[in-house]
Amino acid sequence: MRSFYFAAAMGLAVVYVSCQTDAGKPGNADTVKSGAAGNTVDSGKPGDAATPSISGSVERGHYLVDVIGCGDCHTPKKMTAAGPVPDMSRYLSGYNAGVPLGKYDTGLANGGSWVLFKGDLTAAAGPWGVTFSANLTPDGTGLGGWTADNFRRAIKEGKYKGLADARPLLPPMPSDNLAKLSDEDVMSIYAYLKTIKPVRNLVPAAILNPPPGGH
Ligand code: HEC
User: Fold this and answer.
1) With the C-alpha atoms ordered 156, 162, 164, 169, is the resulting torsion angle positive or negative?
2) Which of 75, 141, 189, 201 could form a disulfide with 86 if both were Cys (CB 3.0 to 4.6 A apart)?
3) Which residue minimizes the CA distance to atom 42 of ligand 1?
4) What does the radius of gyration of the chain's CA atoms come to, in whole angstroms?
5) pLDDT tens digits along 39-90
6) Which ligand 1 atom lies nearest to the CA of residue 122?
7) pLDDT by residue (tens digit) across 149-190?
8) Ligand 1: distance of its center to the CA of 172 in Å?
9) Ligand 1 mean position, distance from CA 105 (Å)
10) Residues in the ligand 1 pocket, defined by CB under 6 Å
11) Buried b (16+ CB within 10 A) or exposed e, 65-99
């Protein structure tokens, strides 16, 4: 149990270090431009000094979100005769704050031999505690107040709310995989997420277990 928690934390730490060292390499310059005219979003808002000139393509962002499957965890599902399907009225709006978490086997989850998912995959319980998938829509309860730089830091450095001194994002958010996205792709995803329907939904804070070795 502890080793699993630890592996997740260490993975994030390694990603964080490698992002730091890669930052100044040639070819990683902050000058990538992409996307057809009229289909781009400039990240150059105030406070976006780190990524002043990278723009993303909404179309590419849509493609990446579909293919990576962000919605598997970030879109609630509704049950149909054919099984669960994404609830597109709540597309990418994260764990529905109006739905009680319900009972689950804390012994199994805390023990680390199982990771338990809520039936629609928007919450997960494991040795780290319980995490709730975030609201990625442009509402104020989602990414509405985020800068492009917050988004880049959340994806590339696995930081909660995209803040430099925040806790690492926890499983099952695939932070170490998504950190490998190019800056251009990250900005494309950001550009696309700004175009989707805002959904008001204040996702509950994660319930964090004490770190391994803690008291
Ligand atoms: C396997 C499930 C899963 C997948 C796939 C996934 N996420 Fe997440 N994501 C989560 C969970 C759970 C959290 C909350 C983690 C936490 O609280 O530490 C999260 C957190 C985030 C956050 C941070 C939100 C905040 O308030 O700090 C962002 C941004 C994010 N995800 C974007 C994405 C994007 C974009 C994709 C696809 C490219 C994606 N996620 C794919 C489960 C997932």
Assistant:
1) negative
2) 75
3) 173
4) 18
5) 444 444 544 545 556 788 999 999 999 999 999 999 999 999 998 899 999 9
6) 12
7) 999 999 999 999 999 999 999 999 999 999 999 999 999 999
8) 8
9) 23
10) 65, 68-70, 72-74, 124, 131, 133-134, 136, 154, 160-161, 169-170, 172-174, 178, 189, 206
11) beeeebbebbbbbeeeeeeeebbeebbbbbbbeee
Question: How much distance in Å is there from the Cα of 102 to the middle of ligand 1?
Answer: 21
Structure tokens at 205: 């804070």
Give the ligand 1 atom nearest the CA of 124. 12
Confidence at residue 213, expressed as pLDDT on a 0 to 100 scale? 64
Distance (Å, whole) CA 201 – CA 44: 27
Counted residue by residue, the chain has a size of 215
Instruction: Select from 185, 206, 178, 151 the least CA-distant residue to 69.
Output: 178
Buried b (16+ CB within 10 A) or exposed e, 6-36: eebbebbeebbeebeeeeeeeeeeeebebbe
pLDDT in tens, 13-25: 433 333 334 443 4
Encoded tokens for 16: 């964080």
